[in-house]
Amino acid sequence: MSDERRRILGGWIGGPRTVSPLVLGYPGERLGFPETGPGSVAPMGLRILALIIDWLSCLLIGAFVTRVWGGLTPLVIFYAEILVFTTLLGASAGQRILRIEVRSVDGGRLSPIAVVIRSLLLFMALPAVIYDRDGRGLHDRAARTIVLRKTTTL
């Protein structure tokens, strides 16, 4: 067996020790996004904080509108907010505050159908907590989207 074949076979058989950050790269690398700065994959902490901001604002609006704390009203408001703001602005209110945005994997604006798919799956919650090494939840993978640090100044 040639040395090259032996090296390739040995790397494949190597098992878990070959799976390291050096092999996997940084989040977004395999999709062509930069490691840091504008246009890089938004960290999970910022995404969760944006979700908390969105949810609390929807709870407050729901309580103001219905004079009741809870119920389904905040959930409906949350879905509408995510759907409308992501379609028009490319980010929810919480994401805008934290300067992150939702983009198509090819880097362009989102199509309305991608926003609907992403919003419906996000609304179900479970797809959002299962994510890949690029920080893309199942909802992002289904809609071919990714959450990035903001690239524009608007």
From TrEMBL:
The record's annotation in InterPro entries points to:
Pra-immunoreactive, RDD
UniProt topology in membrane: Multi-pass membrane protein
Where located? Cell membrane
What Pfam family is a match for this entry?
Answer: RDD
Is the keyword Membrane in the record? yes
Keywords in UniProt for this one? Cell membrane, Membrane, Transmembrane, Transmembrane helix
Task: Please state every residue range assigned to the domain named RDD.
Answer: 43-143
- Any one annotated GO CC term: plasma membrane
What residues form the membrane-spanning segments?
Answer: 48-70, 76-98, 110-131
Name the record gives this protein? Unannotated protein
Q: Which organism is it from?
A: freshwater metagenome
**Lineage of the native species?**
unclassified sequences, metagenomes, ecological metagenomes
